[in-house]
Write a structure and sequence with these properties.
The chain has five helices and no strands. By secondary structure, the protein is mainly alpha-helical. 19% of the residues are buried.
Length: 91
């Protein structure tokens, strides 16, 4: 498995896990170290430029067709980060 595919699978897992946490147990973002760690890694991925490189690889058709790639959608990670921000700000 390529490094890119592996990374996307991991980030996809983080995204799915964090979406479940915000829906079912939003307080986990305050106390659960695993949730905090996944959020940091996903945020770093999105903000650090790797997300864009993986997105561009997908646009060039370099990723396998059956790969789950919701994390590469233009809104999924941004929407989650916005929800977490709103949760922390009490909105």
């Amino acid at each position: 498995m390529s490094e890119t595919v592996y990374r996307i699978k991991i980030m996809e897992f983080y995204l799915d896990s964090l979406c479940l946490a915000i829906k079912n147990c939003p307080e986990a973002f305050d106390y659960d170290e695993n949730v905090k760690d996944m959020l940091k890694k996903l945020t770093d991925y999105y903000d650090g430029g790797q997300w864009m490189r993986d997105y561009e690889a997908d646009e060039r058709g370099e990723l396998p067709p059956g790969l789950k790639r919701g994390v590469l959608s233009e809104d999924a990670v941004y929407d989650l980060l916005s929800e977490v921000h709103n949760l922390r700000c009490g909105q």
